[in-house]
Amino acid sequence: MITTYLLGAGASANALPVVKQFSNSITETIEFLKVKFDNDEIVSKESLVNSYGVEITLRSIHFELLDRLRLFLEDCSNGFTIDELAKSYFFKKDEEKYSILKFNLSIFLSIRQILSKSDYRYFSFISQISNSQNIIPEGIKIVSWNYDRQFEIIESRFLPENKELNSLNRLSHRSKISNNYVDVRVFNNLYKLNGSNGFILDKKQIDFLDLCKRGLNSISYIEFLKTYFEIKQKIEEKDPKIKNTLSFAWEDSENYVRFYKDVWNEISKTEKLVVIGYSFPNFNSEIDLEFFTKMQLLKKIYIQTLDEIGVSRKIKYILSKLNIKVDLEIFSNCDNFLTPAELD
User: Best label site of 54, 81, 172, 177, fewest CB within 10 Å?
Assistant: First the structure.
């Protein structure tokens, strides 16, 4: 029997802001970085040479980063959600604004995850569903709308201290943008519809997971600024070797057809669906409809949400439109993710 988990932003709410909190979180991040690093002597002593051979101080890069976050704050304060704004740029074919928005979002999420580290519920969830070999069984599939790296951060806690964070091999993680789409490790159990914050440069993954483990201090912030500036240069120069691994679900990017074919195949035998922290926003409706269409064996849906009325109404509309008749059970307690052992 297959149990599929469908995760939305609420599943990471203990570590990252949900839509309504984005503006406040960006403001808090700017203020934190200002207070901690504006006059940091260690950061102020460091510099690097840009691609034109000009020496740049890390202090100036720090202030440029703050300015970038302020512009990102403006984007988040204009009445649109980030996803809505991104979708408008994408379909208007405004490639420059689209690229900048995705870059800013990836950088912001990276900083927030270094500061807040992880949502404890992921650790409890993975601990409970993993088998004796610390592997997630094939009977569990995870489909996530989230572009954060909460799964990867938590997974690193299961690794011995001498293992590199980029060598994670318990979770098979697929998204449209990856180093090697064919390399899915052990199981096809985690699909990220919007990709993940981070970048690939010269086939090397840049995800800041090591900094998430270490936290933010003068030394780690220097590392972050140097990497940030390198990525920024490559993007501004339109270097084809740099890729943003954040890839919105509607992007017809590399591996698009193959990716969704694999997702639909993996969930096709689902009998139990657990929805955690997902609000079924209108701009995802096309993919959501396809998602439910593919689960021909679905018998029951468990919904874990703080918005019982809103989510229940939306999911009932989808089921009615597709003429799907299944039982629904709603849980308003979101202290921990539901596990298969708790499902009747």
Answer: 54
DSSP string, 136-202: --TTEEEEE---S-HHHHHHGGGS-TTS-GGG--SS-EE-SS-S-TT---S---EEETTEEEEEEET
Please give the pLDDT value at position 233: 96
Q: Which CATH class is domain 2-13+119-197+250-342?
A: alpha beta
Nearest CA to 74 out of 26, 132, 106 is that of 26
Domain coordinates in residue numbering, the chain: 2-13+119-197+250-342, 19-118+198-246
Residue 320 phi, psi (nearest 5): -65, -40
Cβ–Cβ < 8 Å for 207, 198: yes
Q: What is the mean pLDDT of each run of 10 residues along the chain (344 residues)?
A: 95 92 96 97 95 94 98 91 92 94 97 90 87 77 94 71 44 52 48 92 88 93 97 94 90 79 94 96 92 96 94 94 94 89 80
pLDDT, residue 253, reads 65
Cα distance between residue 248 and residue 64, in whole Å? 26
How high is the pLDDT of residue 232? 96
Angle ∠(114,179,223) on CA atoms, nearest 5: 30
Q: State the CB neighbour count (10 A cutoff) for residue 294.
A: 17
CB contact at 8 A, 30 and 73: yes
Secondary structure of 258-317 in HEC code, one letter for each residue = HHHHHHHHHHCCEEEEEEECCCCCHHHHHHHHHHHHCCCCCCEEEEECCCHHHHHHHHHH
* Cross-strand pairs, 204: 201
Residue 140 burial (CB count, 10 A): 19
